[in-house]
């Protein structure tokens, strides 16, 4: 699932960043990495604006807002508690 589709207040792990526009992919990938959006980091969706854009997330001890288009590029998985 993508970060855009992720449920609220669930602990998530980034598993991939997909860039949809080839001509913009390198600068956009670097920008997202500089914000901490890299494979393996844990994140949580805090809230969404009324129309779904932007999305507020928490990662690495800080909060960040992403546009819906950016959130759709971040593939995540839900981290489940181990019994």
Description:
- It is a single chain.
- This protein has helices spanning 25-34, 68-71, and strands at 12-17, 42-48, 55-59, 62-66, 74-78.
- With 83 residues, it is α+β, with helices and mostly antiparallel strands.
- It has one domain: Ferrous iron transport protein A (FeoA) (SH3 type barrels).
- Strand 3 (55-59) and strand 4 form a beta hairpin.
- It starts with 11 loop residues before the first strand and ends in a 5-residue tail after the last strand.
Q: How many extended strands?
A: 5
Shape: globular
What is the correct CATH architecture? Roll
| SS content category | alpha+beta
> How many domains comprise the coordinates?
1
Largest sheet, spatial ordering of strands: 4-3-2-1-5
Mind summarizing the main beta sheet? 5 strands, antiparallel
How much strand? 25-35%
Order of helices and strands: EHEEEHE
- Averaged pLDDT: 85
What CATH calls the topology is SH3 type barrels
Name the CATH superfamily classification. Answer: Ferrous iron transport protein A (FeoA)
Tell me briefly what this model is:
The protein has 83 residues and is an alpha+beta fold.
Element layout with pairings:
Elements: E1 12-17, H1 25-34, E2 42-48, E3 55-59, E4 62-66, H2 68-71, E5 74-78
Antiparallel strand pairs: 1-2, 1-5, 2-3, 3-4
Key attributes of the depicted protein:
83 residues; alpha+beta; SH3 type barrels; 5-stranded antiparallel beta sheet; 5 strands; 17% helix; globular
């Amino acid at each position: 699932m993508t970060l855009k589709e992720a449920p609220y207040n669930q602990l998530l792990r980034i598993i991939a960043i997909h860039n949809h526009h080839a001509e913009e992919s390198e600068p956009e990938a670097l920008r997202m990495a500089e914000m901490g959006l890299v494979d393996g980091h844990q994140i949580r969706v805090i809230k969404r604006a009324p129309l779904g854009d932007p999305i507020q997330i928490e990662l690495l001890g800080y909060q960040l807002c992403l546009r819906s288009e950016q959130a759709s590029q971040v593939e995540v998985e839900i981290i489940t508690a181990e019994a």
